[in-house]
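Appendix B. Extra example for self-study. Work through it before the problem class; the solution is given directly after the inputs so you can check yourself.
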Amino acid sequence: MRGYKTSLAIIAALSALAGARAIALPQANPVTPDLIEAARKEGKVSFYTAVDVEVAEKIAAAFKAKYPGIDVLVERAGSERVFQRVEQERSANITNADVVNSSDAAHYIIWKREGLLAPYVSEDVATYYKDNADPEGFYATWRATLSPIGYNTKYVKPADAPKSFADLLSPKWKGLMVKGHPGYSGTILTATFEISRDLGWDYLQKLAQQKVMQVQSSTEPPKKLALGERPIMADGNEYNLFILKEAGQPVDVIYPSEGTPFIASPSAVMAKAPHPNAARLFQSFLFTPETQQLLVDVGGLRSLHPKTHEHAGRTPLSDIKLMRDDPAAVVDQVDEIKANYTKYFGT
Amino acid sequence: MSADGFHVLPAGGVPLRQARTLAALGRLDVSNLVFAGCALVLLVLVGLPLFWLAVSAFMDKTGAPSLTNFERLFTDPTLVAPLRISLIVATCVGFISTIVAAPIAWIVSRTDMPGRRLIRALITASFVTPPFLGAIAWEVLAAPNSGLINVWYRALYDLPPFVHLVDIYSIEGLIFVDSIYAFAFVFVLLANTLDRIPSDMEDAAAILGAPAWRIILTITLPLALPAILAGALVAFLRSLTLFGTPAILALPAGFHTITTKIWSLFQYPPNPGLAAAAALPLLIATVVLLRVQSWILGRRGYVVLGGRAGGTRRIELGLWRWAALALCLFVLCFPVFLPYLALLKAALTKTLAEPVSADNLTWQHVRFVFFEFSPTRLALRNTLFFAFVAATIGTALALIASYLASRKAVFGHSVLGFLATAPIAVPGIVLGVGMFIAYTRGPVVLYGTMWVMIIAYVTIELPAAYQQLKSALTGVSQELEEAGRILGAGRLRTLIDITAPLLRTGVIAAWCFIFIGVMRELSAAIMLFTAETKVLPVVIFDLNESGDLGAISVLGIMLLVLTLVITILANNLPGFGKTTTGTKQAA
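Solution. Structure tokens for the complete assembly:
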């Protein structure tokens, strides 16, 4: 537990969420009986999310159990497609989304700038997320994960497994790797940004020569790994690896020696949410210790809520060398990242 | 207008002409208004998206007229490569699917092979399989390492992991999957042609002592050649404009085709202008090739030459008929048996690569799809609703348009026919891009409503329904209609009370055609859906993005079962009478 507390301090330092400092957030909005009643009248909340669809449905089921009579419609797609969808709907003046979760934290800077978000600070966010929320209360980091290397233990012995990103460039892994795509996945976009910053595009250019199988969402490489389609995952996400490993599938996580990309995945209420009360109730629900613990337990995710405890058998964040995220820099470089990626990887 | 009507009524004589003139003068025929409305609807349906497509292709990002988009299209290597790959793939698909379909069509249509009806029915099953679902099933079968075929291959020869026989994530893999589903289309075209060629000439040759192979080479083949060429063109075009299959198979292999590239241009920051420019070559290719096709088919008038006047004599294959049946069943393994077995396995097992056993069986995916996955119910309802509405509106439009065109009833009837068939030249993804641009701006913002989906479906499926009904109409004598008209009924009334009931087989077939089309449509839907108007193909496509094969398989099997059940129900509607031609034509 102590190790975990320290790790939170590290994350606080790491997640420079648009220059967020530990400053006072706007006033917290407690969940009142009035809010619950109003939400129940609306009867529905539409949740645009990039989290794995089974995890999302479990969160939705927990919400429906706690607040009967309010339905949750899960709209799951890769973060970059969620972003595209929100943009398309905005351009046509469509208001469908109530709460939006993307693993590309840069999206929130853009959405906030464009006035798409509503400020809303739940009690948990006000108390526990000072370092991981927008100072003006427009969004907060709902969940976090890493983009480590993964491998299938049936085909690769732990001793033979790659230890670093540099190891992936060895000819022995040619044609045996799978990775996600930054054009679809916010996790992969963030990871690509961090890797290209810390290791240089040179590394990715060489990786592209390794005949890597290209999938879209960061949730898919772990599944392809478990399926035995490829024995090595060059990027993807940590939480699906945990879920699969703990379900008895032959996969394991490697934290590369150069550092593992850290991905913060915020959540926010839309300014024009069609179900504004249900949206706020849901956003508040997302940050309660119970929901956060559920994310850890069934979702394999990292929670930034200090009241949660890490699972046995999962390496605590404090023991992992992390690559720092920097959403503000991603906002400026996103076009370049995608263009370079297409140039090297072909899609 | 009545002068025009007089044209087609040489037998009608003067009294009829007078009657019609009187009728036209006596009151303003309501039907003319309906018909004019119908023409206008068609014009807007097809015209508006194409207009905006063209406009935005010739604009730069600021909205000024410019050729930048086309400059980029033909110089930027990330756009040139997909164009080239699409052409290569489509050419191969054209060849392969025709080479496979031609002998099968000949066997089914001209020989005494047992189980001909079964084979036709199975080809119908391949026809109703959405191409993207087939592609996903082939991932399950032929992914290089986890693919079942490769797993079996390694087990059989005791080979180490990662040695593989086939790799579906490759250009060859894409060509293969495209071809096996284009096969059904080429088959239908060829089989219908072969059905209609009378066997008189073949009989003559046989009487004169020519051996079977010689008859095939010197008589059947030349007679069927135009249809074969036309079939190859259809397969080429389908492949060129297909979105789902390359999106599933090409991306993992690390390349784009032109359709997936167009789709990716809508990623942030979206570039609809460039997407429109990239869509125009597809549009032009389609228009040109369809002209070529109709020229090839039209050049020799044999297709309608006396119908089946001479009757078709089936060639007796003797013992070879069993070999022929085996060949047909073997070919059908690829689009039907293997994929559906693979989907069934993926739907019901925990670990796909492990053999089916009590341990490995699970209801988990079924439960997830029906009880946990929240989009299922909405998407199911939407899909069925859109399919019903689109099929009904589309059939009505096609009926009116084909009636007017075949009876040459109104001024400009040929324009109507052109408008109703024009969408065939507009690939789904191109229409999706055009409609997205057209309906996200004023005066009517339809994007986000269910209407934009229904309009897209009606537009895409209209040509098939139109052609279906037009050919059915040529078989309905005009005398009954004229009788109705003489007795004072308007054209619309005549159409509803007399012609439509006579056409019921054709009407049902057209309705089923549109219905099936909606159930398998992905390329336009993927551009136009919103959370509230999500349909099953889009849900399946989204699940594929995150690699949830089990759920996809459950949904895919459900989609197929639903389509088949509704097609069968429609063909057995009480009061409409049981028909067999409906399904046959739908094939």
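Self-check: Chain B touches chain A through 48 residues (CB under 8 Å). If your reasoning did not lead you there, revisit section 3.
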